[in-house]
Amino acid sequence: MAAARGTGTYRPRWAPVEKGKDDKPGKSDPSERLDGRKQFEMRSAFMKVGAVSRATGSAYVETNNVKVVCGVYGPTSNERTSYSDKGQLSCSFEFSPFAREKRRSRDDEQLERAISLMVEEALTASIQLDKFPKAVVKVWVVVLEGKSGYLGAAVTCASLALADAGIEMYDMVSSISVGIRKEDLLMDPTEAERGSSDFGGSLLLAYMPSLQQITYISQKGTIDSKVAQDMVKLCSEGCSKLHSLMRKCLVEAERKRQAKLAREHSRSNSS
């Protein structure tokens, strides 16, 4: 799946689909969360492509206090490796100097290297690597702000940037996490929720909704297998909603690009 290069913004306004008690795992609906969301409601999202002018493709994703920007460069010749009939994806993840409250440390560097590999693993299965043999596509992800939820935002933002760059893909990858507090499942938990004494753990999923394929999954905390299955189901539903927003963002960007070309063509004809 590839998208045309363009610049556009999509600011969605949506709410989770209302379902009965038996339609959702976990308890029905606990009291409102600290940020005002319901149990199965994701944070509102802002998406934009064309955020980095000199990149082949780029994107910006913001979900409340999580802000991530990504630039994609290439494909370019990969001189460091011998000939291969498949291309390579290289991902680099980092926190901006003002994204963290504390000064950078070795722990931050190790975390960045670990997340770089996670993002790379989540995205590699979605890219048609055989389309650019002996070449490499480089993905740079920078967290501008965010204490939690930045991994899912990074994967989503990077996949959107790859589509903006016109990289041929099987499907875009969206990613989100679900946490458990006592016996209640919480979609897209905040840092405050993760830090509460009754928070039992979380599960993050990277997912290709069109193909219904998981590209990456990670779990924190001790979670019962049945509960984990329910969390995967909720994550896949959240990923599908994010995927829809990503598609709308790309469509809107292409619409604006075509409109701009039409205006330029009209001006050139009139002159």
Structure in words:
It is a single chain. This protein is of the alpha+beta class and about 270 residues long. The protein has 4 helices and 10 strands. The protein has helices at about 105-125, 150-165, 190-195, 225-270; strands at about 10, 45-50, 55-65, 65-75, 90-95, 135-145, 175-180, 185, 200-210, 215-220. It has a 6-stranded mixed β-sheet. Strands 8-7-9-10 form a 4-stranded antiparallel β-sheet, sandwiched between helices. The longest helix is centred in the C-terminal third of the chain and has 46 residues, at about 225-270. It is globular and about 65 Å long.
What portion of residues is helical?
25-40%
Q: N- to C-terminal separation?
A: 38 Å
Strand composition percent: 25-35%
Which segments are poorly predicted (pLDDT under 50) over 5 or more consecutive residues?
Answer: 1-23
Strand order of the biggest β-sheet: 1-2-3-4-6-5
What does the oligomeric state look like here?
Answer: single chain
User: Could you give the order of the helices and strands?
Assistant: EEEEEHEHEEHEEH
How many beta strands in the DSSP annotation?
10
Q: Helices and strands: which structural class? A: alpha+beta
Please outline the major beta sheet. 6 strands, mixed
| Overall shape | globular
| Whole-number mean pLDDT | 85
Quickly count the helices. Answer: 4
Global Rg: 20 Å
